Amino acid sequence: MKPGHHREVETVEPAEEDRLADLPSPDELPMRPLRHHLALTVYWLSNTVMWGALLHIALQTRLGDWFPEARVGYYLAVLGFTGGVVGTATQILAGAFSDRSAHPWGRRRPFVIAGSIPAIGALLLLGSTKSYWPFAGAVILVQLFTNIALGPFSALLPDTVNPREHGKASGFMGMARLAGDTGGLILAALLLSARPLGGNPPHAEVVAFHGHGMFHLCSIIAAFVLVTVAFTCWTIRERPLSRRPRLPVVQVVLGSFYVDIRGNPDFFWLSVSRAVTNVGFYMFLAVLLYFVQYSLRAPDPQTTTMYLMLPAIGSAVVTSTAAGILSDRVGRRPLVFAAQFLMTAAGIVFAVAPTFGVAVVAAVPAGLGLGAFTAVEWAFACNLLPQGEAARYLGVWNASAVVPQILAVPIASAIGSAISAHHPGLGWRVDFAVAAACSLIGVYFLRHVRERRHLTAGSRQTGATDAP
Questions:
Q1: How far apart are CA 248 and CA 196, in angstroms?
Q2: Which terminus of the chain is more solvent-facing, meaning fewer CB atoms within 10 Å of its CB: N or C?
């Protein structure tokens, strides 16, 4: 036996035995009824209502109350970077501990409850703040607590759904996420409209109106989170581990951020592709309101942003479930390729759009691509997860959305404000061109991913296997 091989057995084998205890093979999971797939979507719905409202309109509106165009991007960058770091680290750590939890309620639901209840208080605090730094602190608390819940919750899909139905389940979850985006967008636009009093009220009155609207917005979201958490934990049943894994806490923490790239190369390259694509996506989200306000010169940017986003999200909802179900039959990778090309083309049109009408036309293919991408990429990742560490690796997977947000918000904000300080309105268009380039680079990295195809019901009976 080689010395290097001996060391590998000593360090890896106990963890492997630890995490595989009591866990059935994913292919042995039963096919689930429709009600189970729908139950998995409910918590996603409240989470995306929250972030749809905050990321699309609410954060930018409140910062716009306190800072001018040339400075607002930098303060948004601080908020995005800090919140993103906290959210990413929290989600991975919570996921790793939930993988090894022996709680009688199951591995995931206790974390969902433990994160969601204090998140409700953080949302109420966020709605009550009147200046930037308390506002920033409340946003970070919301990130912290919601990600304690979200990391373990994400693993309920691979924990309870057979891989042959991952596309179907992901399609429904994608639809819920997009519907939540729509609801959050509309809710924030209605409560934070730029012309609450008619005409052109003094700035102080608009700021005060936004303060009241922000509190109402956060209160409504907090109530919705409470209802969906209760529903999810009541309806979704888990199989708890029969014994507590023996890994010490310190070892779990130190190992949480380790990704076995050599053992999971396809998962790694898929995460890289998603991360680069999401840099562009979050650049788009971060500055869309400022694009509408400063580039298109819309008199009511909050409402106009809502009208611009609705065709995109509506198109995404149409394609999400269909793309997820179709991917169970034809594979994930071709659909992700097509979605990324659609989003690239739409980003280019946005960058040069001279009018609101042209931007609306570009919103439709952007939404079609987003809907397919949102549903299929999640199923793709679930098919590639190592058994027994679903929550931890999904935390890493979600980091491929959160880390890009950490990068995208400062990049987009700095580019937008720096260029617009000399050429008003131009910087936000440059952001969209960079976003389109990121989506195209994501296509390149996706070429390195080999898809893992699971047995269909028919092939299981005949003994045939799907091609890799």
A1: 56
A2: N
| Cα 176 to Cα 185: distance, rounded to the nearest angstrom | 14
pLDDT value, residue 243 = 63
Strand, helix or coil for residue 135: helix
Contact 153, 392 (CB under 8 A): no
Inter-residue contact 49 to 187 (CB < 8 Å): yes
User: Residue 255 contacts by C-beta under 8 Å, 6 or more apart in sequence?
Assistant: 15, 96, 247
Separation of alpha carbons 115 and 241, rounded Å? 21
Domains and CATH numbers, the chain: 29-240+262-456 (1.20.1250.20)
Find tokens 């999640």 and name the residue: 378
Q: What's the pLDDT at 66?
A: 86
Which residues of the chain carry a pLDDT beneath 50? 1-20, 196-198, 455-468
Rounded Cα distance, 144 and 306, in Å: 28
| Distance of alpha carbon 430 from alpha carbon 241, whole angstroms | 51
> DSSP readout, 182-203?
HHHHHHHHHHS-S-TTSS---H
Sort 383 into a burial class: Cβ within 10 Å, 0-12 / 13-18 / 19+.
Answer: buried
Angle, CA of 118, 85 and 445, to the nearest 5°? 125
For the question of whether the overall pTM of this predicted structure is more than 0.85, the answer is no
Alpha-carbon gap, residue 28 to 317, rounded angstroms: 31
Provide, for the chain, the percentages of residues in helix, strand and coil under a 3-state DSSP scheme, each rounded to the nearest 5: 80, 0, 20
pLDDT given at position 258: 67
Q: Where are the beta strands (DSSP E) in 242-366?
A: none
Contacts of 203 (CB under 8 A, 6+ apart): none
